[in-house]
Amino acid sequence: MLDLKEQLKLKSFVFKHKYGQNFLTDANLLKAIVSDANINENDNVLEIGAGAGTLTKYILERTKSKVVAIEIDKTLQPILEENLKQTSVQLEFCDFLRIKPEQIKKWFNGEKFKVVANLPYYISTPILFYLIDNQLPVESITVMLQFELAQRLSAKPETKDYGALTVLLNIISDVSLTRKVSKKLFLPEPKVDSAVVNIKFDFNKFDVDFNMISRFVKNCFMMRRKTLINNIISTYDITREEVKNIFNKLNIGENARAESLTATQFVELFNSFTSIKKL
Ligand code: SAM
Question: Distance, CA 142 to ligand 1 centroid (Å)?
Fold first, then answer.
């Protein structure tokens, strides 16, 4: 069997930096990613950015259920078809961020699915927001990310890495960084190291409307240099006094910034707000 480098050369494939094309070939690492994803034979899987299908192959080894792999670059079609022939994978050539959520639900007949991917780094954050904002029946997300973003997702309050995405994920899931990955294991080699992150969803962790709190948390982080009170009164029809009262009740300091609140405090703050105001 040809190695990936030779195959890509034979097919005159040119790597496109604009699509974040850094492929994986190391069998041990590929196996480790699907193992971190905890895929069983009954799991449906969505892969975003199939590349040459190296990760797809290991996903297909673990499940007998539906696997849908999305790829934006049509020039990879002959390579993917060759590498995944005689498998049941459904290949879709399109821009993931332009797919209607309803379409994804249809592919899986409304059933839940797991996301496994070595994400294109230039759009990792929008992809994560797409997956959590669209109320898709996603059980877990196991993805390779830039190491810095992986740190951001698993960050603790009061650190520069802690942001809206960290809080929102903590409201609906448990996040763990499962392994750090050297840039040397990618083809071509990117500038930075990476890490695999596993996000296990638990939508009942807090009794709260996720869409509403999502908007609220994003607004609270809108201007990081502003205090939380100033962010809130510049966004919502609420007075400084009303906000101060809520903060006092919840033991939140008047000069607190968004990055100092835990997910639990955000939920409490949001619930206090909605009890006196329509957000
Ligand atoms: N899964 C492969 C692997 O691990 O070797 C490839 C991973 S590579 C980091 C990311 C892949 O995502 C590339 O093949 C790229 O063409 C594809 N991609 C980039 N933007 C995309 C988008 N908007 N929608 C779908 N795929 C995209």
Answer: 15
